[in-house]
Write a structure and sequence with these properties.
The protein is an alpha/beta fold and 328 residues long. Helices cover 55% and strands 11% of the residues. The structure holds nicotinamide-adenine-dinucleotide.
């Protein structure tokens, strides 16, 4: 099929398929961006949760700032996939992380969506080639992998599968940029992309330490919250090491620490998720959260995240102004 995509500026209607944590989050984001949003989930309880999530979080969206015309009244929660996607300029899929299911849902979206519609998956690591395998028009499909919550965290990882058209990848980049996101494009399929793969590596180490009785759930969280997590939001892990090398920068760090890191880099394989480890992790999280409901913890995380993003943006602006002043 010849690709006849609308320009990303012309997008007015977005469909979100799957209404869980990520689908609900996308709904909020696209409403805030001023679109008409159709949402579909086969389960009535999930459809109710989407509305609840929008009602609970809308004041935060208002506080963040709404695009012209944005309104939560522009949400339509529908009870068929066809109804959700048949008017959409772009579809953001967010169904469970099961390859067969995603491939079937994509085939169905592909059947009902207009020819100009781009179809994006939120998958955290399933190959796009697999997800598009049953589509008649796979050229208009790509990965648009968000981070939770999609209405606040800017990163989206974009990549195509074997049959994705390069224009679709570029379209997705332009579309996400227009919609307040900070996309990165992977030139080829990489298992778990970039950020999830880094998260997975850290989670693997954490579970090993909990299983071996070397650290508790709380110690793991404190170690990142009060340690490297603070720096990562400013420098990322690579520039962080560059700064850790003093005047010698990353070169000094690699020469200094490289040889001793060979052993930890190669020490561990996947942890065995035994019943005991599972229980330790669950009990640890319950202890740490003091038994407070997840919705309350999410609301607190969101408010703090907004404050952090604002503080970082403001500091970056001030530092950039100061640099231009120095040069001027
Ligand atoms: P979730 O379990 O919270 O939600 C999945 C939703 O999909 C449920 O509401 C379920 O009812 C619905 N669903 C099931 N079958 C469906 C179908 N045939 N059609 C439409 N909806 C259907 O899961 P989630 O955490 O929102 O994850 C969704 C996707 O987003 C996954 O691919 C996941 O890897 C990805 N993702 C998750 C996170 C995260 O932190 N949770 C982050 C980034 C990406």
């Amino acid at each position: 099929m010849e690709l006849t995509l609308k320009s990303p500026q012309e997008v007015s209607t977005v469909a979100v398929v799957g209404g869980g944590v990520i689908g609900g989050g996308w709904v909020l984001h696209y409403l805030r961006m001023g679109h008409d949003v159709y949402a579909y989930d086969p389960f009535p309880a999930a459809r109710e949760r989407i509305q609840q999530m929008v009602d609970d979080t809308w004041s935060l969206m208002v506080d963040l700032g709404l695009r012209a015309g944005a309104s939560r009244d522009r949400l339509r929660i529908v009870d068929s996939l066809e109804e959700a996607v048949r008017h959409a300029d772009v579809v953001q899929e967010a169904v469970p992380e099961v390859p067969e299911l995603k491939a079937d849902v994509f085939a169905e979206i592909d059947r009902y969506a207009p020819a100009h519609t781009v179809i994006l998956t939120s998958t955290s690591g399933i190959s796009m080639t697999t997800i598009q395998s049953k589509c008649e028009h796979p050229e208009r499909t790509a990965v648009g992998h968000p981070f939770n919550p999609p209405y606040l965290v800017p990163l989206v990882e974009i990549l195509g599968g074997d049959r994705t058209a390069p224009e679709t990848v570029q379209w997705a980049v332009d579309f996400y940029r227009l919609n307040d996101k900070d996309p990165i494009v992977l030139e080829r399929e990489v298992p778990a992309f970039i950020a999830s793969r880094l998260q997975e590596a850290m989670w693997r180490e954490a579970l090993h330490m909990i299983a071996a009785g070397e650290a508790t759930v709380e110690m793991i969280d404190i170690s990142i919250r009060q340690g490297p997590g603070l720096r990562w939001a400013i420098t990322g892990p690579m520039m962080n090491f560059h700064l850790a090398g003093g005047a010698g920068g990353i070169e000094h760090v690699l020469d200094h620490f490289g040889p001793t890191l060979k052993e930890p880099w190669t020490r561990l394989v996947a942890p065995e998720l035994t019943d005991e480890l599972r229980q330790l992790v669950i009990e640890g999280c319950e202890r740490e959260s003091g038994g407070r409901p997840v919705a309350e913890l999410v609301a607190e995380r969101d408010r703090t995240l907004v404050a952090i993003l604002r503080a970082r943006d403001e500091m970056e602006r001030q530092l950039s102004d100061a640099r231009s002043g120095d040069q001027g």
